[in-house]
Amino acid sequence: MKNPFLLLLLALAGAVPMPAAGRHILLIAGTPSHGPLEHEQNAGVLLLAKLLNRVPGVQAATSTNGWPPDTSAISRADAIFIFCDGSSQHIAFRDDHPAAVGAAEARGAGLMFYHYAVEPPDSEIRARMLDWIGGYFELNYSVNPIWEADFQSLPRHPITRGVEPFRIRDEWYFNMRFRSPMDRITPILVAVPPASATNGPDGIRSGNPDVRSKAGRPACAAWAYERPNGGRSVGFTGGHYHLNLANGNFRKLVLNSILWTSKVEIPPNGIESTITGSDLRQNLDPKGPR
After folding, report:
1. Which of these, 235, 144, 139, lies nearest to 182 by C-alpha position?
2. In terms of Cα–Cα distance, which of 258, 272, 260, 252 is closest to 14?
3. At how many degrees (to 10) do helices 97-106 and 123-133 cross?
4. Taking the domain 19-190+219-280, which CATH number applies?
5. What distance lies between CA 155 and its chain's CA centroid?
6. CA distance linking residue 21 with residue 18, whole number of Å
């Protein structure tokens, strides 16, 4: 059993986060998608929740394979993390779900949209995405190539505490559409995409003249947004490959981001965690061979 006095001493020493008084985090996963070890939405959410529940004062709950049947889970959450397919399959934009997310945003709950979840279904929803997380993937403007991003430097921000510059191959989206002005948005992950990521043929997600005109320029693949109402949001475009959570810097950045949106104080070295190969292979969707 955890010793609360010892945990408090460790927190004061900066070894663990300061205990948050019952911070409730809800992680929502969409239904199975893509091939094996890609878009492992259920396994990813369950693993992240397992790690978050090791943080003093944090209670992480999950909803797998879709929207939580008990909507009170959303109304009491201090932060909501969504990992699901986007566009017309986006679970946050079905039925009365936008109203539930909007109510959470209005009361200051944290929001983090992960990978494909940063793409809203159509133009009518885009304004809401700007209000909720400060940016989004726009068809015929943003692109989603797979490339090895070299994040050579990181900004000074609670989300980047303890994270070292790193390189990793993923489906990093870029040329995102952001709020204007961007004074409340902090680019967290920025890298220069290779020519292969910018010179693709025209397509709704593969290339366009605007992207090609920006060849050689740094591109933002993850960002933090401090909303006018005091709420915090994060857009994180990586996460296509489930095994990227084995990378300590990648994993720490994701955990720091989730907890930052919930207003948990991030310690100087970030959220420490260890996982095994067995952890990564738990709860995988039965997709069969590719």
Report:
1. 235
2. 272
3. 30
4. 3.40.50.880
5. 17
6. 10
For residues 67-94, one letter each, b for 16 or more C-beta atoms within 10 angstroms of the residue's C-beta and e for the rest, the string is bbeeeebbeebbbbbbbbbbeeebbbbe
Instruction: Please enumerate in sequence order all residues whose Cβ is within 8 A of that of 145, keeping only pairs 6 or more positions apart, or say none.
Output: 171, 172, 193, 196, 197, 200, 206
**155 contacts 277 by C-beta, under 8 angstroms:** no
pLDDT at residue 7 is higher than 50: no
- 112-170 residue pLDDT tens: 999 999 999 977 788 899 999 999 999 999 999 999 999 999 999 999 999 999 999 99
Rounded CA-CA distance 117/83 in Å is 6
Cα-based torsion angle of the residue sequence 198, 203, 209, 210 in order, rounded to the nearest 10 degrees: -70
Token representation of residue 125: 């929803």
Q: Hey, where are the domains in the chain?
A: 19-190+219-280
CB 41 within 8 A of CB 115: no
Tokens of 77: 């959450």
| For residue 267, cis peptide bond before it (omega within 30 degrees of 0) | no
| Least-confidence region, from 103-107, 213-217, 284-288 | 284-288
Cα–Cα distance, 284 to 242 (Å, whole number): 9
Contact 253, 159 (CB under 8 A): yes
Q: Are 198 and 212 a contacting pair, CB within 8 Å?
A: yes
Q: In 10 A of CB 169, how many CB atoms?
A: 13
> pLDDT by residue (tens digit) across 184-194?
999 999 999 99
C-beta atoms surrounding 202 within 10 Å: 11
